[in-house]
Write a structure and sequence with these properties.
five-stranded antiparallel sheet; 20 strands
Length: 309
């Protein structure tokens, strides 16, 4: 008696099961979980102790971007300035640490008489207790009449107790010698973490278990991202993070300041050239662009832009 032909149903089901398993495996391997929102790394900052000597008001803040030379304490009751706060001439970047010490760097605005070239590479510290401003450390490189600018960005990283400085020191119209320097606040030791790249603004963020340094370039409307390890040292090459032109930045605008506000990244833009005359103004032309974190794709997306008065 002839044997019945074997059913192909079990074989078909088996093959379908294998195909489904392979598809599921490929999909699983190719799936990227939503990336966590970048978190600020300067939330431990403290107000300087010397503020208690003033008539403190809720709107009181230290500033370097007004018409007065040096560091100024602004409030609704008036502006205040201690005697040493204009010793370095006009100032630009400003950062606080966990102890309430304040770090500033000279930025020429009107003439080299107010900001001599010899001082362009020096970071100054305002003592939290006394309010006295003194030179803190000097970075490698020097300014010149062709490029009188030096340190353009400062950012403090709480977890690392380090100060990161973005510079254009020593650069010429045809070559970049600036970068980002990491400074250990306990002993002022330094390490160049991003070399031969002119940087205007810096920000360090925490993302998951790691850190990332954001660097706004001084020659292009672009922000780079440099991955850092647990000690604040580079653990890979810098990669493009944000093309500012995608949100309406002009070819001449640069990221002057970077700051996190929740899941948004706010970037102040200013026109910048390496000419003191072209950048001298009592009213900086600042625009603020905002990016929203897209967790599904792990990237910043342009949101909107505003103009500052």
């Amino acid at each position: 008696m002839p044997r019945p032909a074997p059913s192909i149903l079990p074989v078909t089901l088996t093959l379908l099961g294998l195909v489904f398993s392979l598809v599921l495996l490929v999909a699983t391997l190719g799936y990227a979980a939503p990336t966590s929102v970048p978190q600020p790394l300067d939330t431990c900052r403290s107000n300087p102790q010397f503020l208690t000597a003033f008539n403190v008001t809720p709107d009181m803040a230290l500033a370097t971007d007004g018409m007065a030379m040096g560091l100024v304490l602004r409030s609704s009751t008036g502006d205040y300035q201690l005697p040493t706060w204009d010793d370095a001439g006009y100032l630009g970047p400003l950062a606080y640490d966990r102890r309430g010490d304040v770090y500033v760097a000279p930025t020429p605005r009107l003439s080299l008489a107010d900001n001599p070239l010899a001082g362009a590479a020096t970071i100054w510290r305002v003592n939290s207790a006394t309010g006295q401003m003194r030179p803190f450390t000097t970075l490698p490189g020097a300014a010149s009449e062709r490029n009188p600018f030096g340190i353009l960005g400062l950012a403090y990283a709480c977890d690392l107790d380090m100060l990161y400085a973005g510079t254009v020191l020593g650069s010429t119209p045809s070559s970049e010698h600036g970068g980002v320097v990491a400074i250990h606040l306990d002993d002022t030791s330094q390490q160049v973490v991003l070399p031969n790249t002119d940087v205007m603004s810096v920000l360090v963020v925490r993302q998951g278990v790691g850190y990332t340094l954001y660097a706004g370039l001084a020659r292009r409307p672009l922000v780079l991202a440099l991955p850092l390890d647990a000690l604040g040292q580079p653990r890979g090459p810098a990669q493009p993070l944000i093309d500012l032109s995608h949100a309406g930045a002009t070819p001449q605008e640069r990221a002057r300041k970077l700051r996190l506000a929740g899941d948004q990244l706010q970037i102040d833009l200013v026109p910048f050239t390496y000419s003191l005359q072209a950048n001298a103004t009592d009213t900086p032309q600042i625009r603020t662009l905002t990016w929203q974190w897209d967790a599904a794709h792990g990237q910043w997306e342009p949101l909107h832009h505003t103009s500052n008065p």
